[in-house]
Amino acid sequence: MTTTAYQLRPRTELFAIATHARARALSPETPSSQRHALLQMVDEWGWAAHHCYPGGPWERSNLKVVFLLADAWREADAAGLPPFDLANPAAFLLDTAVTELRNIYADRPQVTEVEFTAGPFGKRIEWGTITSAVTRYADGTERDNISYPGPRLHHFLYDLAVLRPPATGDTLTLRIAPGPSALPELDVAEPTPRPAYLPSLLDYHDLALPHCTCPKAGCGGAIVGEATREAQAACPFHSRTPTTSCHQGINCPKLPPGTDLSHVWIVVLNEVRTATGRAIERTVPYEQADRSELGPRHLQHLVEAESADSAEAVVRAQLSTWNRI
After folding, report:
1. Domain range for residue 29?
2. Residue whose C-alpha is closest to residue 2's, from 79, 95, 76, 102
3. In terms of domains, do 105 and 83 share one?
4. Which of 217, 190, 203 is closest to 264 using CA atoms?
5. Sign of the dihedral through C-alpha 70, 74, 75, 79
6. Is residue 24 part of a domain?
7. Spatial separation of the C-alpha atoms in residues 103 and 175, rounded to whole Å
8. Cβ neighbours of residue 87 under 8 Å, at least 6 residues apart?
9. pTM of the entire structure?
């Protein structure tokens, strides 16, 4: 149950119910008669969001998902959990992420705040909860070797990054001790208009049989990429069949004439690996490149970015994970 038309993703909503139910159960102001029901909700709906397979996609078009949410809110109302106020969705997700951290550190009041840094994850920029997290303590000490892999926090920060996209290197400090947490002021440039059927020039267009339900590209092929992952999972063909015959969107025979490719770059890594991994050798615009002259294809990385420096920043941030190329 929410108080505005904005809707959270269903799994995020169930995780949020579990997080706020636990916070309410831990509050000294909560009557003892309500705590047992609240803690049962934490286990039940946290487990459902993490492990339950609703027989199809985790979307409100799936009737089983609708029933799960209805059951969760029926129990939440009975346990005294107030409805979510989503008048400002980003503020709600920020508060819910803070609440999750306060639940984690409920018995360790010496932890005062946690700082996350944004970085590339696939084709998205997300708040990193596994690496680059800094945990600060009341005595002034810091630790950078604590990760926060829990699915609840990941979902809250993922949706927050969708609503308020960060740039690589931005930091987000969540204050566990009393005091406000705030999103950084982000100067988000308007994205370059793309053809409606082409979410990304780097997605693949795969064979689409009559019973394929994936989004389609201009050539009739199924769009297979990060943005369509949930659709692929629900597709009766692609959910169980590997890609069969595909080409990248940038090479699509139906790519509209005059499509702007100036934001696509090829970042080439050096063939020689040093003790610290491979270095970037050069970055060239896709439109001006002869890929046969750029060395082995496995060292060439296509990146969508507004400038060569931005493209290199994306690759440089991921080099540590590419040390076995």
Report:
1. 1-87
2. 76
3. no
4. 203
5. positive
6. yes
7. 12
8. 3, 4
9. 0.56
Q: How many domains does the chain have?
A: 4
Domain finish residue from 64, 87, 110: 87
Q: What would the pLDDT profile of 224-252 be if each residue is shown by its tens digit?
A: 776 666 777 777 666 666 555 677 777 77
User: Could you say which of 87, 106, 129 is where a domain stops?
Assistant: 87
225-233: which pairs have CB atoms within 8 A and are 24 or more residues apart?
225/123, 225/199, 225/200, 226/122, 226/123, 226/124, 226/200, 227/123, 227/199, 227/200, 227/203, 228/199, 228/203, 230/57, 230/58, 230/59, 231/57, 233/57
Tell me if 248 sits within 8 A of 223, measured CB to CB.
no
Helix (H, G, I), strand (E, B) or coil at 157: helix
Residues 5 and 82 in one domain: yes
For residue 59, the one-letter residue type is E
The low-confidence residues of the chain, meaning pLDDT below 50, are 1-5, 186-198, 322-325
Name the residue with tokens 């063909």.
Answer: 237
Q: Is 183:94 a contact under the CB 8 Å cutoff?
A: yes
Contact 8, 2 (CB under 8 A): yes
- What pLDDT is recorded for position 192? 40
Q: Answer whether 227's CB lies under 8 Å from 203's CB.
A: yes
CA dihedral 31, 36, 42, 43 (to 10 degrees): 170
- 151 lies in the same domain as 235: no
Number of residues in the chain: 325
Question: CA–CA separation, 249 vs 199, rounded Å?
Answer: 9
pLDDT at 256: 73
Question: What gap in Å lies between CA 87 and CA 143, rounded to an integer?
Answer: 35
CB atoms within 10 A of CB 233: 12
Q: Looking at the domain assignment, is residue 258 inside a domain?
A: no
